[in-house]
């Protein structure tokens, strides 16, 4: 039996009643090497990668400034940790709360949006700053280790595996509108969405999805409209300042520092677009998202169709099958965010989520390879954990021993189903 992985599941039970933000996030990567009792971090090659808040980073500052800042931040950290002692009960200290870039490592790279953090120590500070030995697992490196960070590389858009061929965008996929699509009668992309635009118009505070749909057809590379077209909303990157934070019992999680209005796109789920059958014997990857758009549209398994009054014309779609046996099979493709991914990989499950999953087609019309985008299901106040319903079918997850695996859900909501799978 194949392992069922998160897909759109039951989140479509939450219709968007009425559809009523630039951020970067901190996520360092640490690759530990065990060398007998002593752990080391190889500085060169095994790089630590992170996305950072600009105000957490002081780059290339003079040595005096650097030391002063370091001390200030050390005190701030101590103060901060004493305030949040409760929250960090059970943690091994030190905990990395801030990361400083000193510009004193030969392999430091900072291209403004993305910083490659190369750890602490092992460089020749007196002579030429070159890396002369492996870094030890102490000081800042130890602080990162205590957060049990697992290595992954941040990618803003999906990476396609070598054996997956993404259909080319052709002229008949595109509309002929100029600059911004506004006429729902003449825009061919609007027509595919049931002769209307899926997003609220710009003059009404655009960029929010009006209702959850089986699939949203956005404008893409073959369209004549420009990048600012509202019908490209989910392609416009992160709008809200998102923060990866540590929970007491669910590991890492995601929240927003900004208010997010209902219907706003929060993040695409990025990772490597793979064939699902390649992952049949993979049991230790919690970051696989099955693209089950077609299955949801056809209520296959326990999936429920979207509550929308416009059905998608199948002539606009490719990748479907009329063969019952084939259609009952598990989704053919998935997004694997185990090694490459973005903030979305940190979003936990909730039985009463504040996000929902929306399949979006923009550069092609193959539903099996649709983009997976998370939208706000409600108005979400700042600092509230962001969650979606993983939609696992109970008893569908099997371990390497062939036995059904069960996982307790600890979302803590009133309607909690008590089991994740
Ligand atoms: C995609 S990851 C989410 C981020 C994860 N918390 C982390 O630390 O990287 C999914 C994993 O998070 C945990 N998780 C998420 N939601 C949960 C929930 N409601 N109850 C229990 N565990 C949950 C489970 O271990 C699950 O396999």
TrEMBL record:
User: What would be one Gene Ontology cellular-component term for the protein?
Assistant: chromosome, centromeric region
> The Pre-SET domain covers which part of the protein?
173-237
Q: Which GO terms describe its molecular function?
A: double-stranded DNA binding; histone methyltransferase activity; zinc ion binding
One matching Pfam family: SET
Coiled-coil blocks:
none
| Cellular location(s) | Chromosome, Centromere
Stored SUPFAM superfamilies: PUA domain-like, SET domain
Q: Which UniProt keywords apply?
A: Chromosome, Methyltransferase, S-adenosyl-L-methionine, Transferase
Tell me where in this chain the Post-SET domain is found. Answer: 405-421
GO terms of biological process kind: methylation
> Region Disordered: start and end of each range?
1-41
Task: Note whether Amino-acid biosynthesis occurs among the keywords.
Answer: no
Per UniProt, residues of the SET domain are 240-391
List, alphabetically, the InterPro entries matched: H3K9_HMTase_SUVAR3-9, Post-SET_dom, Pre-SET_dom, PUA-like_sf, SET_dom, SET_dom_sf, SRA_YDG
Regions of biased composition (Basic and acidic residues) lie at 8-41
Q: Among its keywords, does the record have Magnesium? A: no
Q: What is this protein's record name?
A: Histone-lysine N-methyltransferase, H3 lysine-9 specific SUVH4
Organism expressing this protein natively: Acer saccharum (Sugar maple)
Q: What is the lineage of its organism?
A: Eukaryota, Viridiplantae, Streptophyta, Embryophyta, Tracheophyta
């Amino acid at each position: 039996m194949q392992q069922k992985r998160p897909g759109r599941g039951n989140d479509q039970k939450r219709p968007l009643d009425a559809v009523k933000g630039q951020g970067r996030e901190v996520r360092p990567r640490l690759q530990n090497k065990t060398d007998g009792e002593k752990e080391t971090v190889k500085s060169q090659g095994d790089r630590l990668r992170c996305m950072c808040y600009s105000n957490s980073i002081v780059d290339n500052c003079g040595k005096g400034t650097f030391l002063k800042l370091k001390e200030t931040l050390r005190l701030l950290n101590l103060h901060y940790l004493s305030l949040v002692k409760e929250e960090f009960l059970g943690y091994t200290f030190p905990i990395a709360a801030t990361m400083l870039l000193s510009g004193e490592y030969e392999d430091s790279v900072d291209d403004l949006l993305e910083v490659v953090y190369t750890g602490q120590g092992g460089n020749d500070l007196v002579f030429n700053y070159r890396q002369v030995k492996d870094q030890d697992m102490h000081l800042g490196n130890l602080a990162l280790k205590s957060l049990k960070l697992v290595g992954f590389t941040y990618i803003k858009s999906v990476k396609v595996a070598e054996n997956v061929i993404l259909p080319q965008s052709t002229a008949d996929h595109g509309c002929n509108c100029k600059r911004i699509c506004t006429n729902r009668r003449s825009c061919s992309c609007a027509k595919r969405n049931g002769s209307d635009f899926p997003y609220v118009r710009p003059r009404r505070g655009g960029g929010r999805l009006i209702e959850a749909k089986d699939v949203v057809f956005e404008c893409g590379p073959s369209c004549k409209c420009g990048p600012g077209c509202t019908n490209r909303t989910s392609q416009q990157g992160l709008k809200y300042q998102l923060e990866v934070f540590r929970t007491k019992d669910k590991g890492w999680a995601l929240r927003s520092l900004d208010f997010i209005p209902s219907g706003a796109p929060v993040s695409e789920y990025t990772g490597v677009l793979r064939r699902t059958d390649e992952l049949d014997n993979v049991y230790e990857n919690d970051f696989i998202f099955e693209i089950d758009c077609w299955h949801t549209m056809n209520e296959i398994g326990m999936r429920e169709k979207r509550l929308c009054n416009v059905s998608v014309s199948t002539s606009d779609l490719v990748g479907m099958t009329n063969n019952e046996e084939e259609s009952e099979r598990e989704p053919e493709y998935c997004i694997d965010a185990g090694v490459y991914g973005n903030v979305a990989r940190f979003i936990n499950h909730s039985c009463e989520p504040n996000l929902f999953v929306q399949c979006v087609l923009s550069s092609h019309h193959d539903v099996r390879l649709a983009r997976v985008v998370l939208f706000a299901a409600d108005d979400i106040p700042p600092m509230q954990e962001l969650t979606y319903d993983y939609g696992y079918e109970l008893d569908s997850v099997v371990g390497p021993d062939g036995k059904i695996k069960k996982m307790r859900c600890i979302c803590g909501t009133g309607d909690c189903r008590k089991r994740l799978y």
